[in-house]
Amino acid sequence: MKNILLLTDFSDPSKNAIAYALQLFSNTECTFHVLCVQDSSAYITDDVVSQATTSLYDSLVNKNRLKLIDYVAELESEFDTKSISFKVIVDYDSLIDAVQQNVTSNDIELIVMGTSGATGAKEVIFGSNTLQIVRNIQCNTLIVPKDYEYQHPKALLLALNPPDLLSGRTATDFFQFLQAHTLKLHVLRFTEDTERQDVHDQDTDVLNTQMHSTSYQYHQIAQVPMVYAVGTYLQTHAIDMIGLFAHRETFLERLFLGSATTEMCKHAEFPLLIFHT
């Protein structure tokens, strides 16, 4: 039984991401934990005055709980949920703390969330909710762009940075997902010129073993930013999803250099499946 965490604030992007997940995993036995977070930082003194006779829990949590229950009922009537069960969770906390607690306590394998992208320097420094989750929560994450309409995925593009290895737990998670959804694989390996043959041999040895008789495409790219190379590849190939391996980045790296994962999240036009290393 798979445990998947769905994040919602009842916005259109979050609802679209949840609809995508319900269709993607419609044939998988899983429990969807639907989480709505009442961010404690948004709580103001006026709330106490206007709700003087109501408990803090009632005023900040119960309303969203009822709204969430109604929303899940709508999902159950709209989508095929015969192999799916739901758990409704409302938390009064910071987003990161609430997500981390639920990932740990509910043995979450995947987080699903929507995004409308990020704009301006503030988002680069402090991060949108999506980037905050990717940077701070060590759990595989599926990010669905706003307005992306579900179509059954047939091909996935895996973009690999020089530190990324096709071995270990991260790679195992990736290949299991690939096989479960019968996806054709395209690989863009970004390398330094001096490493190209060694990396090619290592990668293709693993791919030939893992992919068995399934065909794949493999390309090496040097000295081209990932976001540009991926964008060009998407224009010339039928791709339905992008896979990335994410590494922890320091605040200074994020502030002055950014990262390929950050840039991909900010400019995503296809669903991004991020596997943490």
Automatic annotation (TrEMBL):
Ranges for domain UspA: 1-145
Source organism: Gelidibacter salicanalis
Protein name according to UniProt: Universal stress protein
Pfam families per the UniProt record, alphabetical: Usp
Similarity remark: Belongs to the universal stress protein A family.
InterPro entries: Rossmann-like_a/b/a_fold, Universal_stress_UspA, UspA
Gene3D superfamilies: HUPs (3.40.50.620)
